[in-house]
Fold:
Amino acid sequence: MGPAVSLIVMIIAGTPLFAGLFGIFRFKYSTRTAFALAVVFACGAAPGTVIAALLATLTIGFGPMLQSNLAIIIYLGWLAAGALAGGVTSVRWVLRRWHC
Structure:
């Protein structure tokens, strides 16, 4: 399982997440603001995913990651956690800057 496969998995998982976040933000904010916050979350999740992929690859290594199912699950969980942390951090930063 190479980096391309994990990125495809994250894109497939991220699309419904983006739509769900837009719906959640839409309850509190206008349509434009909700869409902007969803985009900010996605843009913050991308570098978080890249950093998490780098750290996971350095920690687990390519050899065990390709052979162990548990290592693959840990790797994908690490990517998801990095994406979530990056997205939440970027949305909180934008909300503080906009004074919402």
Notes: The helical segments are 3-28, 31-60, 62-67, 69-98. Residues 3-98 form one domain. The mean pLDDT is 79.
